[in-house]
Amino acid sequence: MSLPIPSIKRLCRVYELLSELRRANRSSISSTEIGQSLQIKAHTVRKDINLLGKIGPSRSGYPVDKLIKLIQERLQLCEKKGLCVVGLGPVGQIVLRYYDFLKDSYPLLAGFDQSINRLETINTTVPLYPFHAITEVVQAEDISLAILTTVRELAQKATERLVRGGVRGIINLTGTLLHSNRQDVWIKSIDLREELRILTACLTKGRSGRLE
Amino acid sequence: MSLPIPSIKRLCRVYELLSELRRANRSSISSTEIGQSLQIKAHTVRKDINLLGKIGPSRSGYPVDKLIKLIQERLQLCEKKGLCVVGLGPVGQIVLRYYDFLKDSYPLLAGFDQSINRLETINTTVPLYPFHAITEVVQAEDISLAILTTVRELAQKATERLVRGGVRGIINLTGTLLHSNRQDVWIKSIDLREELRILTACLTKGRSGRLE
DNA sequence: CTTTGTGAAGCTCTTCACAGCT
DNA sequence: AGCTGTGAAGAGCTTCACAAAG
Q: Residue A212 — pLDDT band, cuts 50, 70, 90?
């Protein structure tokens, strides 16, 4: 059975927490403590973990190593996924320069831009290609995820080429609404202006909830 | 009555769509068409709009102008909110340089960094201040929103100073979990690594839903 | 005959309560 | 005592179905 999206989101945060704990050599942690650290109710943490399947009969907190492995397997965080950046303006260049923190799981295999000038002047170890090569390169390099940072006008065309090449997940930073008929493509749009508006509207609510 | 968060999010997107329509001189639009444009069910669009209050008895689509005004009022998008950026590394500098697209509603009143060197070398019309001045400046300039882009180590301290000065909404781009006891402070955390993991996990689900 | 408006039904996710294990 | 695991209850949001209006 497939996990509910809210559970997936929380489990990704649990995963990050556990990775930090492992670095600090902690060997186990209780649902209560996970809850406090991440500001989630302990009930919910346990439900989420149980949705993953049986972890074993330990009754004194969850073993960090086992739980990491379980989440990795169930959420498919174990196998590497090829990543690319489309649009090498200021934002795209930041991704090129600072992607180190994700290269273990998401090797950055390609950057694309429509301007030949940019392709020639940007100094990076990531292979760069012209915009028209997207489908071909994505297919050849087996890239399944993309970060979109193009100008608005190119966003939809880029999406189509990415999907045609085999990309199945896109982080859309262009502030444009992307269309894709396909039912197996996931798009996460992030737009600062929209987020500011949401925050503004939330201020009028009495108490604050967490924004996912 | 206060709106549910999912409705707030959708209405912000409707608002953006309506703004575009107004620029194109459209005078009315139906819930069906809004739904198609934003990939929301028409039912839901109407429910959301009705939550705002009575808009009037027109039965041939919603009048664009009236609806914009109604959303603005109810979501408090009308009055300006002072904004600041904390942390002037690569990401913070992008906000400084490209914030134009939001300055109408969110004037950027201050930038903060802990490095005096940065404060002196960055070329911008936005007033820059040292890290320790956060509380004071936020209060003096009546700033209510902040974009956080500091290094991890400073994120929590920055948050405390911002909140003490009067900030009530924070977009957190630091990849750190922020704590705030206060019930009237809203925090939206955006973290590329987490988003990539969520996308990865979603790929294992059969059909794609929209990620909010 | 298309459009909005809305109570009611339905569904998904969260929270509860408590059994069972260590 | 403190912890996990889980069916049952509950809350919140979405979807439905249809009345009412142009």
A: confident
Q: What is the pLDDT of residue A156?
A: 98
- Place A106 in a pLDDT band, splitting at 50, 70 and 90: very high
The contacts of residue A68 (CB under 8 Å, 6+ apart) are A15, A18, A19, A22
Q: Collect all residues of chain A within an 8 Å Cβ-Cβ radius of residue B186.
A: 199, 202-203, 208, 211
Length reported for chain A: 212
Could you identify the residue whose CA is nearest to the C1' atom of nucleotide D16? B43
Rounded CA separation B19/A202 (Å): 21
Task: Give the distance, in angstroms, between the CA of residue B20 and the centroid of all CA atoms in the same chain.
Answer: 18
pLDDT at A101: 73
What's the pLDDT tens digit per position in B20-34? 999 999 999 999 999
Q: How far is A61 from chain B (nearest CA, A)?
A: 22
- In contact, B95 and B149? CB cutoff 8 Å: yes
Q: Among residues B29, B34, B28, B67, which one has the least CA distance to residue B51?
A: B67
Tokens linked to A183: 């039912």
**Residues B29, B21: contact at Cβ < 8 Å?**
yes
Confidence of residue B88 (pLDDT cuts 50, 70, 90): very high
Contact B37/B29 with Cβ under 8 angstroms? no
Single pTM value for the model = 0.95
Q: Which of residues 19-38 of A touch B (CB under 8 A)?
A: 37-38
Asked if B205 lies within 8 A of A177 by C-beta distance, the reply is no
* Contact residues on chain B for A197, CB-CB shorter than 8 A: 12, 15, 75, 77, 105
Asked whether the beta carbons of residue B207 and residue A184 sit closer than 8 angstroms, the reply is yes
Integer Cα distance of A62 and A67 in angstroms: 7
